Amino acid sequence: MSWRKIMPAMLLLVVLLLPIHALAVDFMIPEVTIDAYLQSNGDVEVTERHTYVFKGEFNGVTRELIPKEGAEIAQFSATENGKGLTVESENGLYKIFRKGRDERVIVELRYQIRNAMEKYEDGAQFYWPFFDRRNETTYGDMKIFIHPPAIADEVLYLGYDAAYDKAVLESGGVVAFLMREVWAGNNGDIRVVYEPSLFPTIAERQGMIRPEMIAEENRLAEEEASYVAKQQRTEALGSVGIPVASGLLLTLFSFVTVLARRKKREAREEIGHSGSVVPVQRMSIPATISFTNGGVHTSEATAAALLDLVRNGYVEQLTDQKFKLISRNVAHSHEKVLIDLLFNEIGSGTHFEISDLEKYTKIERNHLTYRQSMSSWKEAVAEEVKSRELIENRTKFRLGVAFLGVVFGLATFQFAMYGSFGHTVVAAVFTLTALLFAMFYQPKNQRGTQIIEEWRQLQGMFNKFNLDEWNRLSTEDKFRAYTYGIGVKNKNFDKHFSEFADSERRTARRDSTSGSNDFVFFEPMLISSSFQSANTAVSTSDSSSSSSSSGGGTGGGGGGSGAF
Q: Is the CB of residue 302 less than 8 Å from the CB of residue 339?
């Protein structure tokens, strides 16, 4: 299959599936005209006129000319309205300097191609790639004219890819390739054969070129006919397959939605019978936060994990910023990891202060240890969640959906290859939908759904809590509700934080004579922001990489256009 047909489709997929990178210079090339004047000695004098339309500032334009094997580019020059422009060249890339802003610029390029032609017993051939896959700019309207050194009668011509079936024979033997729009990243070799007598000084090679040209014409015509037939079959397949696939996906998602709603309804009915405001403890608060927050671990979740150590009696809160280690005999591995990080690595072994965290992460050599410890803590929290078996095993179902995604993907490329762009877009959406669903669909079982609904109901009640309702809760329930509210960063809970905290502090002062001070609030924003600052300090920036592509023109030649 020719690149002329495949490349536009592939570029469409790139636009659909990949992010778009902004160009440094905003421009377009609406028109390009190339005149190639063949010389009797086999050289070619070329004149190119490129029309650029710039938006914003620019410094110049570029033209890449990579000669095919055995040929050479020479005497390159550039002008605008007859005025010469400065040119720099390196490895086939010519930079033409011409500063401006918001302009329409017409640049004329002149150069010579030495040893550009091959002469055989029955004809002399000019077979050349004026651009190839290396070209990064779309040409709005491209015309290429091939001028023989004298009037020619026996002319054969052929275009490949973007130039296929775009040539017409004009008077005197001039061949015009009227290609119109040429997409970036496309090939477009042109090939013309004239009678050998027009090139008397070129050394003649053994063999015949005209039978080869005729065979190439027949081959491309057969490919085109085959392509059209397959295109029609593909269009017919899409007309039937797309509605069927739509119905299949709709049925699939309807089935999943009905199951999920049924689980939620049953869970809510069970919650209504319990009469409890704060859910029963089914796993640790950090694990609960992770599970109900989609596995996302925030700085607020880390602050809540520290407070949960206080709730469980492993750590004593001395002040808003100072904590004392009471016991290392913890129930969960993630609690041990957090204690080791905060008290052993950052603190003194028995005490930890929030200010220690900032001091620790200011030292760059500590960053790796901190990242590894936080990663281990998150993994240990996830392991506890996993051990509770709250997710249904739907492996076979997900594999089935993934198989559908693969089928849709194959159909996407089939539609793209044969120019059915509407079906390509729809099939690409189906592909992404199915594959993403197969990757991330992990339905909660009935117990997991109940946990989600219990804590979701509590979050909804945070906005309705008043002091009387709050004070009716047990200290344990207050502590768990408060810790969870911090960890999920519930905005409604934040509104009442100061009111609840003042109430608890007043209660603590009244009970101080009896030595009872079971529940001491600390400022969650202070702790959360400290962990956020620490995470930011040790984060590493993503590295970027660049790649280059090789040309695809005949004989390794080609090139393209651009600006800077």
A: no
What pTM, to 2 d.p., does this model score?
0.56
Q: Quote the CA–CA distance of 289 and 484 in Å, as a whole number.
A: 7
Instruction: Give the Cα separation of 563 and 55 in Å (integer).
Output: 12
Matching residue, tokens 């179902």: 397
pLDDT at 221 over 90: no
Q: Which uninterrupted H or E stretch holds 485?
A: helix 475-487
C-alpha R_g of the chain: 36
pLDDT in tens, 351-386: 999 999 999 999 999 999 999 999 999 999 999 999
562 neighbors 137 (Cβ within 8 angstroms): yes
47, 108 in Cβ contact below 8 A? yes
H runs (alpha helix) in 275-365? 285-292, 299-311, 333-339, 354-361
Asked whether 198 and 40 are in contact (CB, 8 A), the reply is yes
What is the structure's pLDDT at 124? Answer: 92
DSSP symbols for 373-395: HHHHHHHHHHHHHHHT--B---H
Q: Residue 560: is it exposed, middle or buried by C-beta count within 10 angstroms (0-12/13-18/19+)?
A: buried
3-state secondary structure of 23: coil
Angle at alpha carbon of residue 333, lines to 329 and 335, rounded to 5°: 65
CB-CB contact of 67 with 111 (8 Å): no
Question: What is the distance between the alpha carbons of residues 122 and 307, in angstroms, rounded to a whole number?
Answer: 91
Of residues 521 and 36, more confidence is placed in 36
Residues 269 and 253: their CA atoms lie apart, in Å, by: 24
SS (HEC) of 492-551 = HHHHHHHHHHHHHHHHHHHHHHHCCCCCCCCCHHHHHHHHHHHHHHHCCCCCCCCCCCCC
Residue 415 has pLDDT above 80, yes or no: yes
Q: What is the pLDDT of residues 156-181, one digit of tens each?
A: 999 998 889 899 999 999 999 998 99
